[in-house]
Amino acid sequence: MQYSRESIPLVLYPLQDHPKKCQYCQGEMVFEFQLVPTIISKLKLVTDPKLCARLEFGTVLVYTCRKSCWSTDTTLRIETVIMQTEVY
């Protein structure tokens, strides 16, 4: 995992588009963290009878509101996730 709020993510290929506005406050969305393939061996499907890693992805990017517009009475906020798969 790479955490680096408001930095530039390490991507497999250039992003065509990334989220621009928060759906709650219309504030700017910024890159917050990234899941990289090295975490694959730690991911397991709960319903899988075999206890082995079967998930595959290139990289997962998570964007959040720059203003962190949630409040103490907010129970849930949906963030924006972009998944890039490896191109063979």
Automatic annotation (TrEMBL):
Q: Name one GO cellular component term.
A: cytoplasm
- A Pfam family of the record is PDCD2_C
Mention one GO biological process in which this protein takes part, according to its record.
apoptotic process
Annotated Programmed cell death protein 2 C-terminal domain ranges read: 3-84
Question: Which PANTHER family does the record associate with it?
Answer: PROGRAMMED CELL DEATH PROTEIN 2-LIKE (PTHR46421:SF1)
Protein known as: Programmed cell death protein 2 C-terminal domain-containing protein
What's the source species for this entry?
Answer: Rhamnusium bicolor
